[in-house]
User: What shape does this take?
Amino acid sequence: MTVATTKDVKRTDGGRLTYRGETFSGYNKPKRTPGANKKFAVLAKKGDQVKIVRYGDPNMEIKKDNPERRKSFRARHKCDTATDKFSARYWSCKKW
Assistant: This one.
């Protein structure tokens, strides 16, 4: 796994972060990615390491307001043990 450092991230005049040509509102803040292969992207940060994590199926509705679906999703993905910010599972579980 190749991980960059915070030195590779540039801050714009408006206070947003730019990394590899993509802008983010801040570290660890998911954003929608319209027209991309995944539904969300986040610039994850652990210490001084950063990584872009993409997650979510753009063609699927999540319907997290249904308690049965929510419980099933969290059990299937073992959301209680998702602690690595550099994994898509962590961000997907956090969304649910």
The chain has two helices and seven strands.
